[in-house]
Specification:
Length: 188
């Protein structure tokens, strides 16, 4: 019985290592420069506003927006994700951040997507500034839905510190599980 458990645990460990090997080479080893991140953010925001014009209203009501133009996610039972982005205040980049995460559950595949966090209150932005690393789901109140924010929500109805929007999904990731993501300030 102990040998079966040991084999299962080794299998899960190897699956996790494999998942991280899918994500990390395309991310950390090819860390983008500040100019590359800024170009990606410009393109991502242009795409977001084209597919979801009401997001412009959301941006107008926000004090800042943190955009991750490309997050790469992969997994087989155990998964991981990574991306780099920029915090914009008044349309200008102020700081750079990375987002990294791990997940566990019934999942297989890989995908890329974009992610924007619209800071609606000073408290939400202060929380990001005051913490060396921020685990999504802990701290300020996030608003958004399964598919991210959409025009059907109406910007006047938003209550919370941060509105999140997922967009530009490519690839296939099947399944679901427990996931955590951490946002950390980086130097570029």
């Amino acid at each position: 019985m102990h040998d079966d458990l040991r084999r299962k645990m080794m299998g899960l460990l190897m699956a996790g290592i494999g998942a991280w090997m899918l994500v990390l080479p395309a991310s950390q080893s090819d860390a983008a420069s500040g100019a590359e991140i800024d170009a990606g953010v410009n393109t991502a925001l242009k795409t977001l506003y084209a597919v979801e014009p009401a997001a412009k209203d959301l941006a107008a009501k926000s004090i800042a927006v943190l955009v991750f133009p490309e997050i790469v996610k992969g997994g087989l039972i155990v998964g991981g994700q990574y991306g780099e982005g920029a915090l914009r205040i008044g349309g200008k980049t102020k700081r750079y951040y990375s987002i990294a995460g791990a997940s566990y559950g019934l999942q297989i595949g890989g995908q890329k997507f974009s992610y924007a966090m619209f800071f609606l209150t000073k408290a939400g932005l202060k929380y990001l500034d005051d913490n060396a690393g921020w685990e999504v789901g802990v701290g300020p109140t996030l608003v958004g839905g399964k598919e991210g924010w959409s025009s059907s929500m109406g910007t006047n109805d938003l209550q919370g510190d941060i509105a999140v929007v997922f967009f530009g999904q490519e690839g296939l990731m099947a399944g679901g599980g427990i996931q955590g993501s951490k946002i950390t300030r980086i130097d570029r």
